[in-house]
Amino acid sequence: MRVLGIETSCDETGLAIFDTDRGLVAHALHSQVAMHEAYGGVVPELASRDHVRRVVPLAQQVLAEASLSLADLDGIACTQGPGLAGALLVGASVAHALGFALGKPVVGVHHLEGHLLSPLLSEPRPAFPFVALLVSGGHTQFYEVAGVGRYRLLGESQDDAAGEAFDKTAKLLGLGYPGGPALARLAEDGRPGVIRLPRPMHDSGDLDMSFSGLKTAVLTVVRRETAAGTLDPPRKADIAREFQSAVVDVLVGKSLAALAATGHRRLVVAGGVGANRELRARLSAAVADRNGEIFFPDPVFCTDNGAMIALVGALRLASTPRGDGSFSVHPRWELGSLAPPATGGADPAG
Ligand code: KG4
Ligand code: ZN
Q: Which of 181, 193, 212, 301 is most buried by a 10 A CB count?
């Protein structure tokens, strides 16, 4: 089965074709980062308009790359939520128009399910069950994943997501948007342990987290150092290094606790912050120490993309061949409310 996946939930237009026999056969992405940069964040109306411009040419591009025509598709998947309403509507409109014109089924995909299952796009693929750390700009959550569509929330950030804290802290340090990658680069020049920031909820005894206090702690340091005239570039690098260490310490501690609490030995890390090199290195070492296994998506599939939507669309269409038939988007949508596919969501390889 060949499925065209369309991702338009935020500031990336992602198109891809997933073939259940051959795997991912083509993917293409347009990032709107340069367009939103001037505003310091995503402007929803501009995002929707840009998706309108990009989505059809990118669809043509992936079809050409895969040497396929529209008639070769067996179904179409689009991100149905959560995300920006106007942006989601662009992908959903194109998906349903194509489905109607071609007489092919359309399925709406939960964006976070895409992130959670994105490690299945790369080898080696994690077998179920596993613990997933979903760490993006909008979410920082632990799930127990028993199979496709079988997700149990174990704990989550009580306030800012880790990526959001990276972005806000980067702004405080005068770095551009999106701040996560820029802050991570600056941290490489910083000295360890020169500045001390808190590790919020590190020892809370549960799997919940909190990152907004950390950002406020950085604000206090920045104000103090600005007043003292000591906030020079090396000092900013020290702050970036300590901030990144604090986030990584919390995420590593909670990941090990999540594995211990569930008894699972496989950890999957997904979402934009999963591209962070320090997090990848420290988590890999900690999990290996406990004889566990860790899986990351390819860095290109950590951030938003069409491949993860095409993959989940194919998994869902396998058990719902007629698609879900509803033209609607869900800007707010809990992952825990998803029903497993009719077949029970056992093995994605099957
Ligand atoms: O998953 P994603 O593309 O979008 C959603 O939030 O759904 O994640 C984007 C987030 C942003 O907050 C960005 O700053 C962060 O991931 N990010 C990083 C890195 N690369 C992206 N944070 C820290 N280090 C990175 N290397
Ligand atoms: Zn995302």
A: 301
Give distance in angstroms: CA of 323 to centre of ligand 2: 23
Q: Taking CB atoms and a 6 Å cutoff, what residues make up the pocket around ligand 1?
A: 136-138, 163-164, 166-167, 178-181, 184, 271-273, 275-276, 303-304
- Angle formed at CA 138 by CA 80 and CA 210, multiple of 5 degrees: 145
Using only the alpha carbons of the chain, give its radius of gyration: 20
d(CA 116, CA 3): 19
153 neighbors 142 (Cβ within 8 angstroms)? yes
SS3 for 67?
A: coil
**Rounded Cα gap, residues 1 and 7, in angstroms:** 19
Q: How far is Cα of residue 30 from the mean position of the Cα atoms in its chain?
A: 16
Report CA-CA distances (Å) from 270 to 14, 133, 218, 317: 17, 6, 26, 23
Question: Sheet harboring 23-31: ordered strands across?
Answer: 23-31, 12-19, 2-7, 75-81, 106-110
SS3 of residue 52 by DSSP: helix
pLDDT in tens, 209-265: 999 999 999 999 999 999 999 999 999 999 999 999 999 999 999 999 999 999 999
Nearest ligand (C-alpha, residue 186): 1
205 CB-near residues (< 8 Å, 6+ apart): none
Backbone dihedral region for residue 174 (phi beyond 0: left; psi -120 to 50: alpha; all else: beta): left
Strand partners, 143: 132, 153
Pair of tokens at residue 52: 């309108």
The answer to whether the beta carbons of residues 180 and 166 sit under 8 Å apart is yes
The Cα 293–Cα 250 span in angstroms is 19
Q: Packing angle between helix 233-262 and helix 277-289, nearest 10 degrees?
A: 40
Per residue in 15-39, pLDDT tens? 999 999 999 999 999 999 999 988 9
The CA 170 to ligand 1 mean position distance, Å, reads 12
What domains are defined for the chain? Answer: 2-116+301-337 (3.30.420.40), 128-296 (3.30.420.40)
Tokens 């342990």 — which residue?
193
Bridge partners, residue 166, by sequence: none
Q: Give the pLDDT mean for 127-154.
A: 95
